Amino acid sequence: MNIRSLKTFLAVARYGSYAAASQNIGLTQAAISIQMKGLEEDMKVQLFDRSARKVVLTRAGRLLVPRAAELLRLYENIAQNLDEQQLGGTLAVGAIPPTFSGLLPDALLKLRDSHPGITVHVSTGVSSELTHKVERGELDVAIVGPPPHRLHGGMAWNKVSDEPLVLLAPAPFTKQPLPEVLSSHPFISITRTSWTGQLIHNLLRQYRLRVRESMELDSIETIAGMVARGFGVSILPLTPARWNLDERVAVMPLARPRVAREIGVVYKMGNERQPLIDALKDSLLSVPKDPVVARPAITLSRKDA
After folding, report:
1. pTM for this predicted structure
2. 81 in a domain, yes or no?
């Protein structure tokens, strides 16, 4: 049994066929077949049910998957353990889409410069989905919004940045109190099931702001595009994205009080990759925050006008 065969085995288990694994790991199907037969001979068990038309793991194969993954993790961290001064290893990172506009790539550049031995694998998703993946051990760390509920034991969330909530309206826009804006324009909402959607709808309830909801979309960029085309108004986190500079969109910070969506890292405490997680967290914290362009703020209630 060798590390290379275990890596190939996990690829076959993940992608579901020799052909798919071949495309993703750069080995021919014949080479994969030879490695898998050798692995079965070394372990003296049958890992695949070859009577099926597609690759099906036997019970022994299914039991091997988590053990092989853990063995590879330990193997990848040997260099790190031998030389504590030079961090190295693989870090599986999840991130919500808005962070790809600036925060995440800037942080990854800093991480690459300061710790070239760290390899980062990045995937995307919504906050709740990514947090569950961290909890299940599929990701080491995720960059997400603040959890709306208490995390399960052993999980931690640390803030690294925030994004103020702003009103988006079609330009040109005549400033008026937020309640009047929302009552006189269709409201384009971000998905309620997302943590950002929950934050915004909690704000609306807290200030008893009524909206004429016309759309519920799952992408900040898509919502901004609909606002730019005059389909309505929205409340969103201010991200360093193109719509922030779109002349067709009037962007106004919410005033009294300032409300922001926080961004943080969620991870399992005691993770053997904690030094790598800390290095990523330091890189995120060191990213300069884009100053909010000076704009007239919009009030949350009529009495503040």
Report:
1. 0.61
2. no
